């Protein structure tokens, strides 16, 4: 009997400790990732400056691709900031923003094959429709016991 109580005590302690430990690891990893992404964001700014002040002919596709890479870094950093400000929750809309930006970048960079461009455009359309559906649904969900309250 005493052994079972000790086992339950250790089990309850583990149930409280493990999520906190994993949350700390996740938070530290995200802070490290945000630092790396910030470094890459600044590096991308230096690439912009080099492209702008280069005396040679301008490669607009390269410039647009670099701008979209910049926005991808920016959106990932913003998503990490929102994760910490919204009580450890990743908002779905940021994943949709990142997906749309990535698809636009693919269209700009890889537009040689019309079928791929059409597929990328359809992916963007699906992401926009998903975003629209997400915005028209109510944010507050009804209580899951609403059915049983009326029937008791």
What does this structure look like?
This protein has 5 helices and no strands. The chain has helices spanning 2-53, 60-85, 92-109, 114-136, 146-151. The radius of gyration is 24 Å and the shape is elongated. It starts with a helix and ends with a helix.
H and E order: HHHHH
Query: What Rg is obtained from the alpha carbons, in whole angstroms?
Result: 24 Å
Average pLDDT, rounded to a whole number, is: 83
Please tally the helical runs, counting DSSP H or I stretches of 4 or more residues.
Answer: 5
> What fraction of the residues are assigned to beta strands by DSSP?
under 5%
Q: What is the makeup of the main sheet?
A: none
The poorly predicted ranges are none
Which labels suit this protein?
elongated, 152 residues, mainly alpha, 5 helices
How does the SSE layout of this entry go?
Blueprint: H1 2-53, H2 60-85, H3 92-109, H4 114-136, H5 146-151
Helix pairs in contact: 1-2, 2-3, 3-4
Question: How would you summarize this macromolecular structure in one to three sentences?
Answer:
By secondary structure, the chain is mainly alpha-helical. It is 82% helix and 0% strand.
């Amino acid at each position: 009997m005493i052994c079972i109580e000790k086992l339950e005590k250790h089990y309850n302690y583990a149930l409280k400790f493990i999520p906190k430990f994993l949350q700390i690891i996740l938070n530290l990893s995200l802070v490290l990732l945000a630092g790396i992404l910030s470094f890459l964001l600044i590096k991308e700014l230096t690439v912009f400056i080099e492209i702008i002040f280069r005396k040679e002919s301008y490669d607009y596709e390269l410039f647009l691709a670099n701008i979209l890479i910049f926005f991808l870094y920016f959106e990932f950093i913003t998503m990490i900031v929102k994760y910490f400000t919204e009580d450890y929750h990743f908002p779905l809309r940021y994943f949709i923003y990142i997906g749309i930006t990535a698809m636009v970048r693919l269209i700009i960079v890889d537009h040689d094959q019309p079928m791929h461009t059409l597929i990328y455009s359809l992916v963007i359309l699906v992401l926009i429709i998903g975003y629209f559906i997400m915005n028209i649904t109510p944010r507050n969900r009804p209580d899951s016991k609403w059915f049983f309250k009326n029937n008791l």
